[in-house]
Request: fold
Amino acid sequence: MLIVQKYGGSSVANPERIRNVANRIVKARNEGHDLVIVVSAMGDTTDDLISLMKQVSNNPSEREKDMLLSTGEQVSIALLSMAIKDLGCDVVSLTGAQVGIKTTNIHTKAKIASVNEQRLQLELDQGNVVVVAGFQGVDDDNNITTLGRGGSDTTAVALAVALKADLCEIYTDVDGVYTADPRVVPEASKLPSISYDEMLELASLGAQVLHPRSVELAKLYGVTLQVRSSFNFTVGTVVQEGSKMEKDLMVTGVTQDTNTAKIGLFNIPVKKRIAFKIFGALSSANINVDIIVQSAAHNNVKDMSFTIARSDLQKALRIIEWLQPEIGFAGYTHDEDVAKVSIVGAGMISNSGVATMMFEALADNDISIEMITTSEIKVSCIIKDSDAAKAVKVIHEKFQLDQI
Amino acid sequence: MLIVQKYGGSSVANPERIRNVANRIVKARNEGHDLVIVVSAMGDTTDDLISLMKQVSNNPSEREKDMLLSTGEQVSIALLSMAIKDLGCDVVSLTGAQVGIKTTNIHTKAKIASVNEQRLQLELDQGNVVVVAGFQGVDDDNNITTLGRGGSDTTAVALAVALKADLCEIYTDVDGVYTADPRVVPEASKLPSISYDEMLELASLGAQVLHPRSVELAKLYGVTLQVRSSFNFTVGTVVQEGSKMEKDLMVTGVTQDTNTAKIGLFNIPVKKRIAFKIFGALSSANINVDIIVQSAAHNNVKDMSFTIARSDLQKALRIIEWLQPEIGFAGYTHDEDVAKVSIVGAGMISNSGVATMMFEALADNDISIEMITTSEIKVSCIIKDSDAAKAVKVIHEKFQLDQI
Reply:
């Protein structure tokens, strides 16, 4: 089999763990598999580099930030390759640029445009394990780009697609996908398998086990993902097309996302293209808007609230201030102390009343809901940040997810 | 003017020094110069990476070592570019690969084969200060290579050659080239100028202010070098063709090199091609042999001693052991506690008795000489390691180099 394995930062956090990962890789190699390994930066390396950066500049260029941060993965691939070689296994490390991972030129948030599999295939044909730097690529002018945090998952899936790999294993510090974060809900159950769509919603909604873009890409090209722990040999969770849709659980998981902030705009004059202007400006600044709620117009004015990532709040507020004279709304507020709690499950499509059960669980526990959004397979509520952990617990209990 | 400036590791050792260097660069830019900046890794970065590496592997692959160490300069160029940008100056950083610095494929000791100046010229034409990672390049298969310690000087000169720069300034932690290491001889004088050949000998003999290969390259292409300190604005030392040969000092400098070890082979049978076999094998392992002394043959056997870099000793001893059965010498010894003390000066060519003055200074101070080698512009003696500092002092005094 040709397997792409991805190891996250905690799996290679120190020399001992690097040697441990090398052992796992050589074991798989000795079982006869062809292997492409994708690695993140060691543990705190990225944070250390950011801290160093902040001592140099308050407003660093994003191109130079990519130049800086991409060194983290380069250190990992070199060290991991040394450890693999020490075990007598042929190995070669390659940076994103050397693999030919071409991306868009949006620094710090680039998207993979294509992978030139030639060098990879050449190294595999020569019997090498190939260790590739995750999270990074180059744009058309050969400038180094990064894919944003968690982008190594996306690198792994993109390589699996380019090489038509049989399997893409994502090694992390948890041993699979759970019905809720086990740190919040100790009773959470591990799911043996989950569909792409459910995983996509879970990942988007704050389950940090997989990067949403990687799931999207896996779904698009039908790459089977397996989420496993690098610290034990427990069977993990398989992410694949939901062929057993009828057996799906009504609710697969409960998530919380505290990287959320809310902005409210008051007394917006009812004119054409208002929403386009507001959300177009935010989108041009690469700010993703999540939930949008709009009141009915009253006296020719209306109110509007929306949520964004908390880390984008300052940038978003500058845009809102800049838009105010043109759009002519009376004022705005913002709230950082909010969180999004969500339930996900393909079974929701055919089960009415799932959302009601969620609202009931929250109401029974005096947790008030500020905003609601639903899709075919999820329901999300914006609540107070301080209620988030409790909310996840009571919802998990309500749907009896500890009994899977 | 188009100026290439090179800043060493101590000049960018921390965020404050990086901002200081950025200030100097922007000052030069505001004076109207086009600038290409070559930077080394920050202070102890390379040592830190090597220490991390040793925790992972005892016998690291040299290819992966280059992959690892080249990140040090990449961090420097990113941070320095951020600091320059903060001062309102357009700037772009480029790795060795991005500049198109092609090297031979001898990892950790690669030599620059060519520089593709296209990208550099494009960035200069767009008004950017270009900050380039020193010490690194790529081979024909796009594998990352490094030029060995001090290789950033060579990068700077190679870029000056490729761009036909008007001047190449080497910024370091001393403010010029001295007649001896001021830490050893406080009376040492700073030389206002020095010829390539003298600088080449001084650099090769242990004066660490410039990498010998960079001086060789500068001489070959007639690049004017200026050695200066990044910590003050003192005028440094100009290295250029010795047009004022008649005014040259008899002796320009005294150096010591403690990275020296001696190997002796005893009772070597007199056969053809013995020297070729020994030194060919060492050369194939990229070990530079410095001084070679051979005794006259006696009873059809002879003795031979030679010196190498102390860091190459273990590798060299393995080769000697391996050669012993084939060549059939009776035994060998090695000595790590030796140092090389040298005098350099273009004036020596026309002044007999210079070597004698050196030997006299050593003899007067009870320092015994183990090996001697001379060239047209230098005399080197191998002495005990523990005598090296004293030897430099008494020779410096003998030639009255404090009175320049």
